[in-house]
Amino acid sequence: MAGAKVIDGKAIAAEVRRSVAADVETMRREAGVTPGLAVVLVGEDPASQVYVRNKAHQTVEAGMRSFEHKLAASTSEADLLKLIADLNRSTDVHGILVQLPLPGQIDARKVLEAIDPAKDVDGFHPVNVGRLSAGERSLVPCTPAGCVILAKSVQPELKGLEAVVIGRSNIVGKPVAQLLLREDCTVTIAHSRTRDLPAVVRRGDLVIAAVGRPGMVRGDWIKPGAIVIDVGINRVEGPGGKARLVGDVAYEEAARIAGAITPVPGGVGPMTIACLLKNTVSAAREQTSRTG
Ligand code: NDP
Fold this sequence. Notes:
By secondary structure, this protein is of the alpha/beta class. It has two domains: 86 residues, 3-Layer(aba) Sandwich (Rossmann fold), CATH 3.40.50.10860; 130 residues, Rossmann fold (3-Layer(aba) Sandwich), CATH 3.40.50.720. The chain has a six-stranded parallel beta sheet, with helices on both faces. Strands 3-2-4 form a three-stranded parallel beta sheet, with helices on both faces. A two-stranded antiparallel ribbon has the order 9-10. α1 runs parallel beside α10 and α6 packs across α7.
């Protein structure tokens, strides 16, 4: 296989976590504050339990306080909203994350909107969504922030690049497009109704694939030398019937044409929690400067 540089998300995420740990130490020394992240899990979804465990572990490893709230699957919306109100008031908690999906009796939108925007480290509150699209300072969704860090690891200046984002979800596609606009890219957002997707993708100096379809983006869709960031996480059956994870990009093909590419796993995935920790420190800094 020829030349694409493989963007090592694991190593870059570790670097982000090291810099977060240094910031935490400075905050503790200078302001006497230890940033705290509260993670709320409702129910026993096994994948969510793994995510929450990883988040708590990495939070503590970065020197922050981790508050885990594990609630029964039968928890009422009113009880969850009461917990959010308590966390909003707590001075030990600077970031609040409610693990999605939530059980059917709970309106996820209502819960996300109840989080104090200053503590909304997932960046999903309408106030933060609005600030991002208005180009104001805000807490930014973690996976999109991770994508931009990965792209900048190979090309620190993204200004003027043609960026093609495939996918328009509220958690990845739209916010990553906003962030790239902020970096002065010329941004195209493609989706399931886009005409001649291969031709649109071929315009991209930077391609972000956030679709959820294994290997959909083929090698001959990629402009030679482009940076390819693959957000997709798809579980497929590998050799011998064993499950394995693949991205939205046909990796082997694309790596022959691209200038740089993220692998799956080990690309965007590890960046999400690292950016969550980064957001928690920014939130703590902002809250501390307001009160103290
Ligand atoms: P959604 O299902 O919410 O959105 C998928 C998007 O892809 C939609 O906008 C959809 O278009 C578009 N799409 C679907 N089919 C096609 C097609 N054939 N051609 C062009 N566009 C298409 O997914 P998410 O944004 O939540 O996630 C995308 C992927 O990223 C998933 O694999 C997910 O697992 C992964 N992911 C990884 C994360 C991480 O690394 N930490 C975090 C979040 C997600 P339309 O709007 O028209 O339906």
